[in-house]
Amino acid sequence: MIDLIKFYEEASGKTKAHAWAQLTWVLAVNGAILAFSLKFFIEQMKMPGAIALIWGMAVAGLILSGYLIYVLKELGRHLRGYWACADRAARMSTDLAEIIRPDPPSASTKIPAFMKRLMWPPALFALSHVVWAIGASYYQVHYVSAAPL
Q1: Which of 60, 72, 114, 126 has the fewest CB atoms within 10 Å, counting from its CB?
Q2: Quick one: CA torsion of 36, 38, 26, 61, rounded to 10 degrees?
Q3: Beta-carbon contacts of residue 63 (< 8 Å; ≥ 6 apart)
């Protein structure tokens, strides 16, 4: 029984590590897209179609952010399931009867609170992509296009 508890605890640890790895890599790519978009706009703002490319990069950033939020939700559900299984196994073990609480926790499928906090950075990146694309479009229309040749 102890091995079963250990298995679920190790699985939850791996899931948390996987969530951090996903967050790190996808936000790094998202940041690179945002930085490239800014550099592109500074260097090519007078090019026809520059705004379309910036909006394309913003859509790519939005897709990545949405993907990351979805992955974090799924990993949170798996994590909650691992914890619930480990708790059930611990309650069935007679060796752990002294340290396990007698009332079983609710079998909740909620996402753990720390996983919800991990969803803030991708949401803020999504917002920054939209704000940047709107700001670049505004600048293009009001300052670059209106400037005399």
Answers
A1: 114
A2: -110
A3: none
